């Protein structure tokens, strides 16, 4: 392993290329996570509701059973997770052949259409694969063949998945935010991006920063301005990068969110009350801070 790392250090172009290809392959799986994890979560919530009714409202539960309403709310098979069933065309349900599922290449070979029914395949699939590949290639260029690169790549995979889910569902799953927050704290034990002390304080401060904004906004307006998943995502970045990076992440995410919000109002006619997910903007800001946070902070301090 050490010899391989040394070899990659001697040939950075090869390392960046390998990182790009590997990340594109992982990007194909991330598309699966973005699509399937919310379905799995909704099924879990439905099962919890049914268990609650069965225990505390047996009459209502029996009535629902008699009316055959206790069925999955989606159209997918009973056994449905990140591995099974195999991927199929959403229109004609034809199984997708392995070579048609190749990252980036498969969509291009098919001309963006299903091989069986010729219905268009959304370009979002290759776009997410390309996004994942480009981001990890940048990490390979920035960090080189180091443990920091490996950890940053794993975090990037999670951030792309979380952003995709938030864009689709206005939801940041605990199944992703919480494990990766803990991974950031564990990584800090070896000083990967920050110290353990800064990591723990960062996780606490990251959560409380947006939690405080949430409750202040709610007290003033009576409305909820963001979801609890945003608090946890900010705690995640506090754990990975330390509390010192939180002001930069909040500033950058707010700036990106404001720009996107204005563009949506201008070009799509969305009103001021139109909800937009904030998670992707936090993810963008946190990823930028992961790579160049110290440089940005040092540049700002030098201008004072």
TrEMBL record:
Residues 154-262 form the Prepilin type IV endopeptidase peptidase domain. InterPro entries: Peptidase_A24A_bac, Prepilin_IV_endopep_pep, Prepilin_pept_A24_N, Prepilin_peptidase/N-MTase. Its EC number is 2.1.1.-, 3.4.23.43. This is Prepilin leader peptidase/N-methyltransferase. It is found in: Cell inner membrane; Cell membrane. Plays an essential role in type IV pili and type II pseudopili formation by proteolytically removing the leader sequence from substrate proteins and subsequently monomethylating the alpha-amino group of the newly exposed N-terminal phenylalanine. Residues 21-143 form the Prepilin peptidase A24 N-terminal domain. The keyword Metal-binding does not apply. It comes from Shewanella electrica. PANTHER family: PREPILIN LEADER PEPTIDASE_N-METHYLTRANSFERASE-RELATED, TYPE 4 PREPILIN-LIKE PROTEINS LEADER PEPTIDE-PROCESSING ENZYME.
